[in-house]
Design goal:
The protein has 339 residues and is α/β, with parallel strands linked by helices. The protein has eleven helices and seven strands. It has a seven-stranded mixed β-sheet with strand order 3-2-1-4-5-7-6, with helices on both faces. The longest helix is centred in the N-terminal third of the chain and has 20 residues. It is globular, with a radius of gyration of 20 Å.
Length: 339
Amino acid sequence: MSKRENGAPEDQHWQELKLPQMLFTETVRNLHATIENKWDSLQQSACQMAAGRALWNHVINDPLADLLAGETYLRSLHEKIKKDHNNSAPEISGVILAVRTLWFDSKIEASLNSMGGGGSQVVLLGAGMDTRSYRLGCLKETDVFEVDFPSVLQVKASLIQAAARSTENLGVTAKSLTRVAADIRENNWLEKLQISGFVPEKSTVWILEGILYYLTHSHALQVLKIIADKCALAQTILLADFMNKPSTMLCNSIFHFYSDWPDHLLPSLGFSHVNLSQIGDPDAHFGLLDDPRNLFNKLRNLPRSVQTHPDDGTPCRRLYFVQASGSPNQQIPFSVISV
């Protein structure tokens, strides 16, 4: 099996983890000590996502990812990748993060293009260590808002400031970047967003990446409904990932919200179009899932209603990538891309 069949790079540079010297400065070490000692699992997941971007840098260009991930999360994921690679695993640790990142990147660009140029907004709810405002050229005419816990935004800003002091040409590629300290589980996050400059009447792309399943069902539905209601005011596009029920039933799982049929749920909340993809579909592949033994390809060949794999009795754990949209004058029945 070639290395590219399971998404791994062709060369062997990954065998030895090379950490940037900046990670060992006192300022950065102290910031990451705060993350490891004071943040909960939801907040720390932001560093795990950054580690995925850093170690899959043969397909993702994110010069800030190492710094935001930190030594602990980089070493942990690197060991898993090396073990999978040495065992010729059909899928390599972190490939889900890589595919998800690339899917969101591509859909953000396509969504902004569909909105016809400047004047649009992008809102990242549970932004964590996201760096798209620094690395995506398609945001150059777009106002970006990052919403997350105050502690997360403060540490992230401090880490990026540390990088800026020693890195040339590190700047925001978006038209503007506004960080909004708010908890989307509370009722006032939208008010805080609007006070920070968000305009409900402007075309907006809403990003919910790796966050919905950490919320309770009531909180998740509340957030989705608030976004759906914006379809009555302006062109609105939601990009989100959903777990099905078996995915939340792992031992010691910290996940709560799930939807086996998000393409049915979202129209009931007010979206007029819903497109759904699974990992391995043509728009969620990116040349990283060519091994025929790959788990995700096996799942795609089963009806989505199947909860247990008929071959081995294991749960069918699925991750759905969903694009939903609506606008004031649009009353078109939703369409489902894959079922």
